[in-house]
Amino acid sequence: MCRFGRVEALWHDNDTNDQYIKQLHTIIKPDSTKSPHQIHLSEAECAKFLFEAPDLRPQEYVILQQYLHQIGRPFRTYTDIPHPEYSLVLPPAAKRALNISANKYTYSCFSSHLGNSSIQFYDRFTQTLHTGFIHTILQLPLEGILQSFLLVQEHFSLPPAEEQKAPYIKYPELMTRIVGAAPSNKIFVIEPQHIITHLTTLFQTKGTYGIPFETYVVCWGLNRGRK
């Protein structure tokens, strides 16, 4: 801590132009407004990436464009030609990743790994927390930066009468709930920074707790209050 304070003092000293001090300061105290994981691509690299990527499914294109519009990024549909000069156009293609790293953890698609695909996440629009499975991981360049978007299928909430048959609703300190094993129709588009934690996921057969269908017991205790 003492050494860090000395570097800070030298950095704020207007009389110093020592490039080594500047480099050291950048390493031990990076600019928090810049993501260390951003990958910038040239126009040629973007073109090559999109040429090699498969087409987005129509529904994927629609919900991704809707998400971008909601966060203030007015990407036009690629078929709405002619495009005004300097307009943003959402490409029709994206690569599909089986897994992604975020906050030093690996997260996977449901088809690749059940446990790594089950997450608790943050909905930036309603400021609420949800749980679900990562269905698809899409990667594509936007404005010269390679970006990742996750399509998350929310866990199927049980009817209250069925959920109350399991004990978890009575003990919120367990940070656990029981959900239907059947997929829900609710899809969220999120970015890696919206992931809160992995869930521990336990499959329960039909009839467990008297519930007449298959379920999962999911727990977000791995969070340990980090977010």
Automatic annotation (TrEMBL):
Q: Which organism is it from?
A: Lentinula lateritia
The molecule here is called Uncharacterized protein
Q: Which domain of life is it from?
A: Eukaryota
